[in-house]
Write a structure and sequence with these properties.
By secondary structure, this protein is an alpha/beta fold. It folds into four domains: 36-238, no CATH class; 295-359, Helix Hairpins; 362-524, 2-Layer Sandwich (Heat Shock Protein 90); 540-668, Response regulator (Rossmann fold, 3-Layer(aba) Sandwich), CATH 3.40.50. Helices cover 60% and strands 11% of the residues. The chain is built from 18 helices and 14 strands. A five-stranded mixed beta sheet has the order 2-4-5-7-6. It has a five-stranded parallel beta sheet with strand order 9-8-10-13-14, sandwiched between helices. It has a two-stranded antiparallel ribbon with strand order 1-3. Helix 7 (157-168) runs parallel beside helix 9 (199-320) and helix 8 runs antiparallel to helix 9. It is rod-shaped and about 180 Å long. The protein starts with 10 loop residues before the first helix and ends with a helix.
Length: 669
């Protein structure tokens, strides 16, 4: 907002000429000097526009009122002509100028309503032109009227015109002063030429006329100064209001931002609280699930271990009584209990590894058709023992290559087929069937295992994938399985990328388990042979003559392994630590065919140190089998998963893995 200075254009000159006291000089300046224009041209234009809009209606009303008064004086002239014989001869000419003035005022009224009268320049042009014309008409009436009527009845009309000029029309002081000076000059010149008014009357009339002009100009100056001051105040107030509104808007925006931030913070806090609550609930659920899992595992482990202890105690008593047949039978039953314990331990460890995320899948191209055919062949005898027909619907004699883990996918297939066999419907004796088939699609291969067994009710579809859940087996009969097969299947499929497990079942009619696997890259195909599983029963005679180094720190485990090796005809040397192995490798005369080692060994050494010592002392590669009791053995990058077995393990699996590694080493050499 510009700073306006209200000072007369003639103020400086007036101050230089004046020798009066400063108070009188200031008063005269304040009373008589018209306000100066604003220094900023834009501010002056805005002021004149505002000035014209503000007083447009007032000026129109004053113009109409002045016209009515002018017309009323015409009626007075008509009355004067009727009563005065002296004035009557001059009436026509005088009244003609009265009519001319009324006509000019009417034109001014029309222009005030037709043109852009709200513009200050247009209003000044119409009003000043109209006043000048009416002054001319009044001057002509004064000249034409006889004495003393021209002074007493017409000359006084100049006072009314000046009153309107200075007081009613709200014209600016400079313009009204210029018009007043011109009118007075014309009146004086006309009097000097025509001598129409008596000199004494003219002098008195001019004295009053000048006083009216001075007073009117003073009033007009103060009125304009007041309007300008008010305009500045209004503009300053508007500027303050704008600043206040801007501040209020900014404050409102800040308040809005603060409120939004508060709501966001509250939302985040509530979300954090909900997340913590959810995490706490999840942790509690996981803890309860783990507790239930451990309780169920402990319960299921107690049963075969309890039976194992009782069978061994009974066999010991039979041996004391020299009842060899009874003791042999009891030891066989104890072995069954031991195998069941080992299977349960290994299943629990497998599930624990899968759910803990410590299993990293090794993806390769696998011929699913061949794996399925070999798995079906391995489980055929088990199906026959249950009276179940196991069939592989091989539609096409060509491979079905998929991208999967070659170690885990056979176990998935084996568990699904075994599950269908175990849950065959007794009411369908002789008709129980498990059908295995492959469905080839452009992007995936679907493995289907269908059975016509007892089926699963929809409300149990989620429960069957939980550990130790077995429908229709409340007595926990181990002959019907451990209750971990489907849990392992679900965990493996969830772990493998691009794999999906589906279930469809009708209670009393059977079930269909389907596993979708992504198609392998046709340019990276390789044949993968299904490794031996627990279903195979290799002969220990194939191990006779092998030389094995055993590294085991547990004396009980070492003694049991040495006893097995002796029974199988395996030559062996055993040590308890990597240091003892180092000494042994320096003195042996025969390169071992196989090294079997625990993972965790004394003196902070591991199976890695065993492999390192073999590389340092033996010229050719020697296969190494790690048998560990840890859930996760960190041999990744050193040994393949096939070379790691978890304790406890069955002798059949140990024989199979030993044969696999030694035969592979023989082929490689």
């Amino acid at each position: 907002m510009s700073i306006f200075r209200f000072q007369s254009a003639t103020e400086s000159a007036f101050l230089k000429r004046s020798h009066a006291p400063s108070a009188i000089r200031a008063w005269l300046i304040d009373m008589l000097c018209w306000p100066a224009r604003f220094e900023d041209p834009q501010a002056e234009r805005e002021f004149t526009e505002d000035y014209g809009r503000r007083f447009a209606d007032f000026r129109r009303a004053a113009l109409v009122l002045g016209t009515l008064i002018w017309v009323c004086f015409g009626f007075w002239e008509i009355s004067l002509a009727q009563t005065s014989a002296v004035f009557r001869p001059y009436f026509p000419e005088v009244f003609a100028f009265r009519c001319a003035g009324a006509l000019g005022a009417s034109v001014g009224i029309v222009l005030a309503f037709k043109l852009e009268f709200h513009r200050d320049k247009v209003a000044h042009w119409i009003l000043l032109s109209g006043l000048a014309f009416m002054c001319f008409c009044l001057l002509m009436q004064t000249v034409l009227a006889p004495r003393p009527f021209n002074f007493t009845h017409f000359f006084v009309g100049y006072y009314l015109i000046l009153f309107y000029l200075f007081g009613f029309l709200r014209l600016r002081a400079k313009a009204t002063l210029m018009l007043t000076v011109c009118v007075i000059a014309v009146i004086v010149m006309t009097q000097l030429v025509t001598r129409s008014v008596e000199p004494d009357n003219f002098a008195a009339g001019m004295f009053y006329l000048l006083n009216v002009a001075v007073l009117g100009h003073s009033v007009n100056v103060n009125a304009e100064r007041h309007v300008r001051d008010r305009y500045v105040a209004v503009q300053a107030l508007a500027h303050s209001n704008d600043a206040l509104q801007s501040a209020n808007a900014e404050l409102a925006q800040k308040h809005h931002d603060l409120e939004r931030a508060r709501r966001d913070q509250q939302t985040k806090s509530e979300a954090l609280i909900a997340l913590r609550e959810q995490q706490r609930e999840t942790a509690e659920q996981a803890s309860r699930a783990k507790s239930r899992f451990l309780a169920a595992a402990a319960h299921d482990l107690r049963q075969p271990m309890h039976a194992l202890n009782l069978f061994l105690a009974a066999a010991d008593e039979a041996l004391d009584a020299r009842d060899v047949e009874a003791s042999s039978k009891l030891i066989g039953e104890a072995r069954k209990a031991s195998v069941l314990t080992a299977r349960l331990f290994n299943a629990v460890l497998d599930l624990s590894k899968l759910e803990s995320g410590h299993v990293d899948p090794s993806y390769t191209s696998v011929d699913l058709s061949r794996v399925t055919e070999e798995t079906v062949a391995q489980l055929a005898s088990f199906a026959a023992s249950r009276g179940v027909v196991l069939r592989y619907a091989k539609a096409l004699q060509r491979p079905a290559w998929v991208r999967t883990d070659a170690d885990w996918i056979p176990r998935v297939l084996s568990n699904l087929i075994a599950n269908g066999i175990k849950y065959s419907d007794p009411a369908k004796a002789g008709r129980s069937t498990v059908l295995v088939g492959l469905v080839r699609m452009p992007n995936y291969v679907r493995l289907d295992v269908l059975d016509n067994g007892i089926g699963i009710a929809p409300e149990h579809w989620d429960a069957i994938f939980q550990p130790f859940v077995q429908l229709g087996n409340p007595e926990r009969d181990r002959e019907k399985g451990l209750g971990l097969g489907l849990s392992i299947v679900n965990a493996v499929v969830s772990l493998l990328e691009g794999h999906r497990l589906e279930l469809k079942s009708i209670e009393g009619h059977g079930s269909r388990f389907s596993v979708r696997m992504p198609v392998a890259d046709q340019f990276a195909l390789q044949d993968v042979t299904l490794p031996p599983t627990e279903a195979a029963s290799p002969s220990s005679s194939l191990l006779r003559g092998l030389y094995v180094l055993l590294v085991e720190d547990d004396s009980l485990v070492r003694a049991s392994m040495e006893a097995l090796f002796a029974r199988w005809g395996v030559l062996s040397d055993s040590v308890r630590s990597a240091a003892e192995l180092n000494d042994l490798l320096q003195s042996i005369e025969r390169v071992p065919d196989l090294v079997i080692s625990d993972y965790r060994l004394p003196e902070m050494s591991t199976a890695h140190d065993v492999i390192r010592l073999l590389g340092e002392h033996v010229a050719r590669p020697v296969p190494c089998l790690v048998v560990t009791g840890e859930a996760v053995a960190s041999t990744q990058g050193v040994l393949p998963e096939r070379c790691v077995l978890s304790k406890p393990l069955s002798p059949d699996l140990l024989i199979a893995r030993m044969l696999e590694l030694t035969e592979a080493s023989t082929r490689a050499s």
